[in-house]
Amino acid sequence: YLAKLVVSISFVMRALWYFALLVMVASARPIVIGCVGDSITEGKYPGDLQDLLGKDYKVYNWGKSGTTLQHAGDYPYWNSTEFRESMNTTADYFVIQLGTNDAKTWNWNQDRYTNDYNELINLYVTRPNKPKVFINIPPPLYKDGVYGMQQSVINTVFPELIPQIAADHGLPTIDIFNYMGGAALTQPDLFADGCHPTPEGYLHLAAAVREAITNN
């Protein structure tokens, strides 16, 4: 009887040790962040964000240059490999920044943009692991008409519309718009061509995202 008891205790101790090991491995898993967006996302900021956050985080760059949020845009994000990858990866956080290409004269339609943003948000917030989702207000446009984009949309409509869309879902926004110069366009040195950030500008953007994530 004593021998059986010793064997049973030994088995229980091994089982507890394996369980503790599994807990340690699970707790050591990096926090996964998925950055969804267009060329401003694809360009550089997710890499800078990875550097700023360090080894406890894994940052995915799911930006696709030229893409629109609208299904009816000239290059919908919905059709990209990056969108499919974002749907097939379990992330703890999603950071969405789309709209700059929607502001092109031939793409812009506010009702479509709003409806499609609601659809996209619903896809991410209803993931089984219930990720946290942040909505970025895109950077200001420093040159009206560059790449066909309208300052009136990016610098006037988006700062009002995007926070409202996010609020309808109970989601926080990251105010990249004001962080990078706002309506007064006070930081032109952060932009290379009036639309895309310089290396310093990308780092500036990444710092704003890091602050939002680490404070939540």
Describe the structure.
It is a single chain. The chain has 216 residues and is an alpha/beta fold. It contains 8 helices and 5 strands, in the order αβααβαβαβαβαα. The protein has helices at 2-27, 39-43, 45-53, 81-87, 110-125, 151-168, 176-179, 199-214; strands spanning 31-37, 57-63, 93-97, 132-136, 173-174. The protein has a 5-stranded parallel β-sheet with strand order 2-1-3-4-5, sandwiched between helices. Strand 4 (132-136), helix 6 and strand 5 form a beta-alpha-beta unit. Helix 3 (45-53) crosses helix 8 (199-214). The radius of gyration is 22 Å and the shape is globular. 37% of the residues are buried. The mean pLDDT is 92.
SSE order and pairing:
Blueprint: H1 2-27, E1 31-37, H2 39-43, H3 45-53, E2 57-63, H4 81-87, E3 93-97, H5 110-125, E4 132-136, H6 151-168, E5 173-174, H7 176-179, H8 199-214
Parallel strand pairs: 1-2, 1-3, 3-4, 4-5
Helix pairs in contact: 3-8
In short:
The protein is α/β, with parallel strands linked by helices. It is built from eight helices and five strands, in the order H-E-H-H-E-H-E-H-E-H-E-H-H.
Based on CA inertia axes, which overall geometry fits? globular
Q: What is the averaged pLDDT score?
A: 92
Q: Give the strand tally.
A: 5
**Strand residues, percent:** 5-15%
Radius of gyration: 22 Å
How many angstroms separate the termini? 55 Å
Residue share in helix: 40-55%
What is the ordering of alpha helices and beta strands? HEHHEHEHEHEHH
Tally of DSSP helical segments? 8
List the strand order in the largest sheet: 2-1-3-4-5
Let me know the largest β-sheet: 5 strands, parallel
Assign the structural class, choosing from mainly alpha, mainly beta, alpha/beta, alpha+beta, or little secondary structure.
alpha/beta
